[in-house]
Structures
1.
Amino acid sequence: MNIIVFAENQDGAFKKSSFEAISYASQIASATGGQVTAVSIGQVATDKLTELGTYGADAILNYQDAIFNQFTGEAYSKALAHAAKNKGADLIIISNTYSGKMVAPRVAAKLNAGMVSGVISLPETSNGFKVKRMVFSGKSFAEVAINTSVKVLSITPNSFTIAENPKSPSIETMDAGLSASDVKTETIEVARATGKIPLTEAELVISGGRGMKGPENWHLIETLADTLGAATACSKPVSDIHWRPHSEHVGQTGITIKPNLYIAIGISGAIQHLAGVSSSKVIVAINKDPEAPFFKAADYGIIGDALELLPKIIDAAKAFKNA
Amino acid sequence: MKILVCISQVPDTTTKVTFTDNNTKFNTQGVQFIINPYDELALTRALEITEKQGGTVSAITVGLADTEPSIRKALAIGAHDAIRINAEPIDGFFVAEQIANYAKNEGFDLIFTGRESIDYNGGMVAGLLGEMLNIPSVNVITAIEIENGMAHLERDIDGGREKLTAQLPCVVSAQKELTEPRIPNMRGIMAARTKPLKVVEPTGSQANTQTTSFELPAPKGACKLIDAADAGKLIELLHHEAKVI
């Protein structure tokens, strides 16, 4: 298959999820034959662009007009559809980041392509084209067949490993033929927490629930997270009573995450919460109630009071990091 | 201000998910259905906007007759009228196409969807609608104000928040924080009985995708308990045994 991959950058550096997407595409191209073209949109330095070759990009299309200096779903989807037509692509792969979610459906509609979002498997191509995705916010999986000749997949971050497959890609500067009137949205301000790992991309996540007893105790969660290089999250009750921002709420009505390690501290493990985290590779539950449902979903558990246990765990984590 | 809110009916969040017919169908036996929570936020925010600056809110759903209680509830919450497109919502593309076909001649200034439905989690209807109607679409908004024909928005981005504007008409998808959901009162429930609910037959489009089977996650093995007195041992196990740190 001829594959187009959206290589998303943030401030000129490609995101980890972009390398995952290229590795994913590269595996499909190896199995089915065909070329992987990475599409970079916005300002990225040439030495950064060539990084895409490390993971299997055969070619790079570079869209860097001023119109792409701000992210907009309209302009970015036009560039991707332009690239897909240019390369005669039959598969478009986009990581399911917040920007990816905005772009992918617009690309699918432009190309009249069948789209599957939140994909967690390589496609099965022996009989048609099928992929696996999470449904019911992680409570189960579905296998979905795409019937159209052109297909769009948005793949779940942290679901695929980054694998090297070095190529020496050509870099072609492209013009999507956009004018200012094609874009009807305008970015006013972008605020990102500096030095913090975004929850959706984190490999390690430390999460707190009402067992933390109050927002004043969250420094323990943050210290453990900082020590291990993890992102912080919380349960729904905690965000509902405004101990923590909604953006940290993981669960069925919050964010669904798939980290390598999820440590749930003082969270009982209601079915809605488990839905959002059950695909984590390793789950640790810390709760004073031995009957807490989380222990049934966890790989490791400690029964005890969060505020008493956390300092011990932090000490051990610090010793481990300093060792 | 003419606003359209897209409503999807989903299983209640406490639902234990099971399947029938050799794992090809979601088992609806004993399942309570609700309005998708993000759609409920969208509806409430749409009502707040029209209460402040005038206008109407229409609720639309793509579903068979069994979705009527949810669309009636949208009317009870405060939508002025409702449209049900009489079809099984096969996939996001199909749903968006049905809604776009209805909306294209109706002159809506603003179209709301939820961020995603909590059952199939596609999260693609807002973007598809935007493209099909050739208007901007902005995902996961946490704030919206309308001023001088312009939507002033805030949306979640990876690791932060973005402020932006969008020209009307546009499509937005509702994220938590947008507002607090409204519960219908008795007057609203009574009024909903006589509000217009139009049933429209689907236009002939085909689904691009097809769910062929479902699968439940493999059950976890036993949880390894660590003695509370030796809690620090967790770090060692995560490193040497689980190999995740």
2.
Amino acid sequence: MSGEETRAAGEGPGRLRKPLFRRLAIAVPHRLVHLLRRARIVRAGRGRATVERSGAPRKRGSSLSDYVFGAVILFLFAPLMVLFIYSFNASKGGSWTGFSLVWYEKLFLGSDELWRAFGNSLAIALGSALGATALGTLAAVGTQRYAFWYRPYVAAMSFVPMIMPEIVVGVSLLVFFAGVGLKLGMLTVWIAHTTFNIPFVYLLVSARLEESDPSIVEAARDLGATETQTLFKVILPMAVPGIASGFLTAVTLSLEDFVITFFVSGPGSTTLPLYIYSAIRFGVSPVINALSAVMVAGTVLLVYPLRSFLKSFAAR
Amino acid sequence: MKRNYGGLYAAPQALWLSLFFAAPLAIIVAYSFMKKGLYGGVEPEASLDAYRALANPTLLLVAFRTLWVSLAATAATILVALPCGYSIARSRNQSLGLFLVIVPFWTNFLVRIYAWIAILGNEGFLNDFLRLAGLVGEPLQFLYNQGAVILVLVYMYLPYAILPLFSTIDKFDFTLLEAARDLGASRLEAIVKVLLPNIRGGLVTAVLFTFIPIFGAYAVPLLVGGKDSYMLGNVIADQVTKTRNWPLASAISMTVTFLTAVAAMLFALRSRRKAVHVEIDAGVEATAATRAAS
């Protein structure tokens, strides 16, 4: 392997003496990738329970910690249950006055603005995920295979945005857009979302590439494949699971974001979180209850099979 | 000879992040050292006005409150998350436990805040319930105070603490706890002296993942807090959108960023030895996870 291609990441005995920042830059993202995986994006951890474990056998009885956990699960679900139940309440106020589907009717038939916001959210999410996936994947391939002068800069730039407080990112982008004279709207929201999505795609794809066998790429090169051929026929196909989870993470993060969007959106670019925000400011609105019930159901019914489909597709 | 395409691959991302992340940040830094313009914006004139304004007592009060709220919420989150992580790690069905922790977070962030408003509000579920039970005549004010802010923050960031704690506790060798008990340690002693030091990596991650976002919180104090629970995030937003004092907003942003960075560094330093372990562990686990998936 030529010197250029050695991965300078963190091998060798010198790793203990790596400067603090570098250590953080390696450890924290790894942790994050791992959590994302475990939590929701890839859910590759499914096989984990069968991994051999050392230690005492599983306990039989319950202990204090089990009760705490039970209480926490209640705590986590209670608000959503309340939302769900009250979405069927006939009256707008707090008290229960009878079963009714009036808020669902209102949600589907009388909420044009809400659906416009939903459409905006969807467009921004897909658009920014596409942009971030393209840029992040390319950079991950580059930094993983080659050493070049601004490689540390790329690594740092892919880490810092993640620990930067959202409000600071939002405010700085707002000031920047005002400075360059860009009108706030769909374009600025798209730019902002792509920006905060890039690091996540970069990390997930990098993690995948690091796990793949470098000798396969070497073999392709030795057999005479050009750089483009190697990229499209060897590297990218190997990275597909990372790319897919990067894309889905980006979509999720974009749909979720409120703080940054709040600062960089203008008239006509209201996203769903912004719409909900303005609805909340006007007080409790059962339409939001109905919306959240539909959203939870939609997530479960739509996103989950989609993820497993993509996963099985990726695992092929 | 092979050519080095690394720079070519990374260029688009590097350019994008330089333009839309580094440059805006540089502008904020620069603005924080300038004078406030008459109608918003800035005067291109070097000045330390903004940083001097930081010392004003109202702002200091907010800063201390932010620190206190973040510390209290982080501490509460970790205290609750520890037994949860332990319980999931020791259960037969770990996937179910993790699943239950994650599912509530499939709802939008704002919807979750809204749910708490619907529960705690004057006409909310809780007051309704108390009135029906005949316990109170007048509705109680649960919302718009610091308690509500801390409660909702804990709710928001619990999974961020439970997940890393679970994954380190899961790798902990539980026979060590039994050994400690056999050697005469009490249950509590065994946990404090044997379990906690061994899961330091997970604790650090959990603290970082809760403290950092809570410290920069904006939406939660805005929606469930009152005037007396404003945090630095809210002050920044107000300075930008209402008062239009950009230098001051920039200076506060710099302070928040700086303090966040210091917190991250401190925790990383304290866990210096563990960090390397975490890194190796994460690598191994990631490999195992991918194998399981494919």
